[in-house]
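Recall that a protein's primary structure is simply its ordered list of amino acids. Everything else, from secondary elements to tertiary packing, is in principle encoded there. The following example makes that idea concrete.
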Amino acid sequence: MATLGSQPNANGMQAGHPVIVRELTLEQPWTWLAEGWRDMWTQPVISLSYGVVVVILSYVLTACLFYLDVLPLLLPLAAGFMLIGPMLAVGLYETSRRLRAGEPITWRSTAFVATQSPAQLAFLGALLTIFLMAWWRIATLLFALFFGSGAFPPLDAWVNILLFTPNGLIFLIVGTMIGGFLALAVFAVSAVGVPILMVRQTDAVTAMLVSARAVLANPWPMLLWAWLIALLTAFGIATMFVGLIVTFPLVGHATWHAYRDLIGDE
């Protein structure tokens, strides 16, 4: 059983207590969404502002890819968005934490979150970024393997190639399998890894191991939760990113409640 630090943290929890991983039911991911929805509309300005920022960043990235004439790379990057999403949602976790604790919520408190393990949280963020870069590199290598080293086709032609050519279908299947495996691995270590580092004094490796243990102890509820996150993110992206204004803060708030249900002090 992992031990997380030895000092009391800002939430009154003794960070040095060994943690326990609670067993969940299949209904709980739906409860997290309901609680996240409640939190989002309790603090709509702050919550939806996070979604707006994500949408703006998505448009900027799309414009950069268009300018560089590599717009088809938007597809693997959109899939990789879920790899770094937990780091972008720290302010949303803090908002839900403050709502639960009855603490005042301000722009400053959510934009500059006083985490218990800031250096380790930054380290975890760097690891997730490396995973994203690795996925991007894998996607480009797969493209070269199946289609050669030529230029990327236009986006409209790219969709036809993926769906209606043998090479495209195999590329899509292999890429989906590799991307899905990578996404599940990252989900396991980051499902509650970021919230742990927010409120406990510990190291990133311990936080990731505890997160993975929580996922392995609750395979079906956590697979359902991963599927819900993927579905909501895909919906947000499919609506020309506009849907992320709602789905991103909804998932962010819900993730905090997932952490509260999964992890406790012994």
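The chain has one domain: 34-102+114-265. The chain has a mean pLDDT of 86.
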